[in-house]
Amino acid sequence: MSDTRILAxxxxxxxxxxxxxxxxxxxxxxxxxQDVKHRxxxxxxxxxxxxxxxxxxxxxxxxxxxxxxFMIRERLSEAYGIKPTDMIxxxxxxxxxxxxxxxxxxxxxxxxxxxxVRDCIHDQIFQGAGQAIAGLKPARIGWGSIPSMIGIxxxxxxxxxxxxxxxxxxxxxxxxxxxLVRDLENKPMAAxxxxxxxxxxxxxxxxxxxxxxxxxxxxxxxxEFYGGxxxxxxxxxxxxxxxxxINGDLQSFHVVDGTLKQEKVPLPEEAQDKLLDWLSGLxxxxxxxxxxxxxxxxxxxxxxxxxxxxxxxxxxxxHVSGGGKENDLxxxxxxxxxxxxxxxxxxxxxxxxxxxxxxxIGRLVKxxxxxxxxxxxxxxxxxxxxxxxxxREETFGYRFCPFLDAEESERIYTGSIQKMYQEAE
Length: 425
Fold this sequence. Notes:
alpha+beta, 8-stranded mixed beta sheet, 4-stranded mixed beta sheet, 9 helices, globular
């Protein structure tokens, strides 16, 4: 008889907006969604240490963020006795899914329908968490990574303070990570995917479709392949400067008056659907090959977690100032960054941020802990973004406020999370 002390449970719930909510959202003149092309889901994985009763909750949503993250986290904590920091509620940075609280609308001025969308999402996540916890059963976990066949177009190095466009030949950290859960009969229960790639395939700003985008399509393919109650939540890695490379360079970049402009090559809808199917199939195949080879031999958890809030200086992004490097280094204010980590075992930890983190910062954090570390770059909000519609139209007017001072980045991201890891219970 096995002495496994891991209990695992799963759930999948629909969080798609209604047509009435989409119609109301269009009145804001932001993301002009017209219908639901692919359903949006929240996928919940619960892991419990049978010896201590401590439970970790991992939630992946087909959303750019979980609105009012701390509200639903507190609700889950009170109902199920889970330590708040033992939860990861991560979106997939999916720009073709409804964003229920745009950051340029003050929270106390949000229309009622935005609150209704938020409450619907919270209720479904709450229901799914209850299902996952009620279905806990003995399991084992394992993890691994494999190079992904989906390419990443990473922004080129800034030259004289001006970004020079997309560098389609620069493949940066293209490892697909999977945390795999199997039951005691060796049947896969869940595969949590992590890969640094923005969900911008269906994002057009005008008459877009609600969609799970590439992330949702990969999850759907895996869930169809394994069947039953199997879930494949997809949480993104650091990806603020990385988009999917779709059949060559289908996007052109140029700078006008110091501002980065982007134009998309239009595709017929049927061609776009075929490309999405092809790309998601590539990564789903990568995942199946990896799942086949992962040895789920870990039978004990060692859950610990912590979080910290740290103020950092925000600086003008190069393509906004247009004034060269000296002007780009000027401070324009402060930004509160939330750092969070959850360790599931002695050998595996998740480091999380509350913004769509650029890949260099994600790499810093992953390299600073003495164990295998997975970085999750969108967790409960887009507070690392400010509104600048003319700058990044393809992402609904959000642009990243980066730290251009390497020492400051390392102090905030690396030093803080190292300290948390050492002191956490």
